[in-house]
Amino acid sequence: MEHQILTFYDWVAKLSSSELVALILIVTLPLVFLIVYALVAILGELKISAFIQERLGPMRTGPWGIIQPVAEVVKLLQKEDITPDAANKPLFNMAPFLMFTAAYAGFAVIPFSSHFVPAGINLGLFYIFAMGSLAVIGLVMGGWASNNKYSLLGALRSVAQIVSYEIPAAIVILSIVVLASSMNLQVINANQGGWFWNWYVFGGPGSIWKLLVIPFTFGMFLLYLIASLAETNRTPFDIPEGESEIVAGYHTEYSGMKFAMFFFAEYANMFVVAALLSILFFGGWNSPFGDFMNGPIWGVFWFISKSFFFVFVQIWLRWTLPRLRVDQLMGVSWKVMTPVAFLCFFAVGLWAMLK
Amino acid sequence: MLSDFGIILLFFILGVVFVAAGLITAAIIRPHHPNPVKQSTYECGEEPMGNPWIKFNIRFYVIALVFLLFDVEVVFLFPWAVVFRDMSRIGDTVLWFAFIEMAVFVVILLAGLAYVWAKGDLNWEKPRPYIPSLKDLVVTKKS
Lengths: 355, 143
Known about the structure:
The structure holds 2 protein chains of 2 kinds.
Chain A: H1 8-16, H2 19-52, H3 68-78, H4 89-105, H5 124-145, H6 149-180, H7 185-191, H8 214-231, H9 243-246, H10 256-281, H11 296-318, H12 326-354
Chain B: H1 4-29, H2 59-84, H3 92-119, H4 134-137
């Protein structure tokens, strides 16, 4: 990366005169962030759902219930871990590892700021997309190994859904790659520098003629938003864990800390897709106002607030929309979103060529 | 010190270590009183009936196949997408050629999608069962 002068890694290495410290920090900071974020998001989900339903939500643990997520983690830590006799034990125990590791591995390429990215690889976008698909294997593993009808049905539904929505998401990502000419998330971010009309949701940097492409890029944003909801199994796409039909889907048999890991992985995935939305379409760590409040430190603020906004949107939608039926779900993905995504892809390709 | 992919490997290791640490902590402080009823498969309190590894809908396979086709296509398109804009440096003819080449590639697959669509494999609803009526039994003179 030639536009980086002194990255966080170099800075820590210089300050502590040891690269090991920098290495440890750059690998563990995302995990610390993930834990803090998960606690905030759990409380946020409880409170937002409560406010949407005109309740107060948790109020007893700590002032205004803010220690509730910590209490839940402590509760889950103490819960007895039940492995059914019928389950395939090695796979049953491996599934939480795979789910969480795949979700956390996605964090390796997320640029939190122009100067903080754990691994600024050129394949960033491709890698993060692959890690998103890896979660499917964890799902099937857990669902199949549980040896439970609900789990198997939940896992099957979930795979069919994730796999169907991955196609529109992939085409949208492809269109962004055409616009950015790079799969490196730092380059994609750097391309969108300046004012907010340089964001890819508004067609990226360009002359007045980009007005022609804005409808398509905005459509791509909506497509990716919908697809990302489906990929994280959030409502309205939560038939894999539809409580009214198949108890809890693929994690019916999981209890205690293993269940907590599935839960944790879901929240981590929520952040990864929210981060991708903000990176691909909303400039990532770029300030919306040109050079105002722009820089490596402000970048962290902008990136996290944009990503948290999309996490909020996911929670908001969950408590607003009802669940879709399975035929509607597949119909929307294959008959509406895939053709529209290809239309956007062709439009963006043509525009990128004629510009 | 480490390459970028080395850092990614560290992320994988840290993810596994984190889950292991959580599970081990839980194993130390949680109770452990297994009994056959508790360890039985959950089926809303009923005794589990039959094999849980049931036969499932053939449509899942069709979806998986169509997905596979499109995913492979996307994998092939990624390198194209990265270099597409830079082709304008070579010349407009090459750029047009690249675009049309991609279009041919995509349209062939879209034709496949249209075929699957027309065949009705994308419809999740079951086809309406044919209910025989009296007419079917009566052999008319015409036939």
